[in-house]
Fold this sequence. Notes:
Elements: E1 8-9, E2 12-13, E3 24-28, E4 38-42, E5 46-48, E6 54-62, E7 66-76, E8 79-87, H1 89-97, H2 102-128, E9 132-134, E10 136-137, E11 139-140, E12 152-156, E13 159-164, E14 167-169, E15 174-176, E16 194-204, E17 209-218, E18 227-236
Antiparallel strand pairs: 1-2, 3-4, 5-6, 5-9, 6-7, 7-8, 10-16, 11-12, 12-13, 13-14, 14-15, 16-17, 17-18
Amino acid sequence: MRPVLLGVLLLGCAPATAPAPEPAIAFVEAPGTIREWRFDVHGLPATDTQTGEVVVADVAHGNIVASLSLSILSLRPNTVVRATAILEDAESLGVLYEMEDPAEEARATADLAGRVRARTRAASRALEARDLRPLEPCRLAAGEALFCTHPQRVVCGKTEFELDGDVLRGPASAVHTGWQLPSMEIGDGPPKTMLACIEEAHFDPVTRQLAVRLDHVCRGGGGDACILPDEWHVVAATHAREGR
């Protein structure tokens, strides 16, 4: 368990600082349908203090077709070191959309729930065995609409980052992320410019690593096809190249 720091005042003791939540995953079922399932995740993203990897819970609810999935990812900059699937997209889609007989769907749902319960317990035990330090949550400096615009400014405590195109600038340096996709043909008309848009960010002030969940969207907006599935990335701010 993490230590709780106590401050002493002349008139007594200050309230204890709340400890960071221990990394854990809870599978919350609802009878009868996968559509009501959810995962409660605590203490992630976090840095493994032994390896420097950033551990995230990659929860997805489908892109165009509604589904549910969860994988625990161990990330380094530009690399997925390890991925542990707790519920795969294909599994939930198979039960939701490929079962025509209600009784068959009920049996498949119950069977899948049992497997997911076992995987969740195993994943939680694996997290408990690692020495994990939760990252600090960041915020977007301004509210973003469905289709974001660049530059995006991310505030992580006293540290700020700005994503402009494919360049992430920190307090004194910049790095080319490689997140930008080439223009894509989506629907009618000329190819559309794609933007990598940060939806969620967390920062480790010890290792100076930034973990982001981002979407790729069409610049200027569009239909559902203009939003690609989100994905997690880690960038090491300490090793960023100086901007030009």
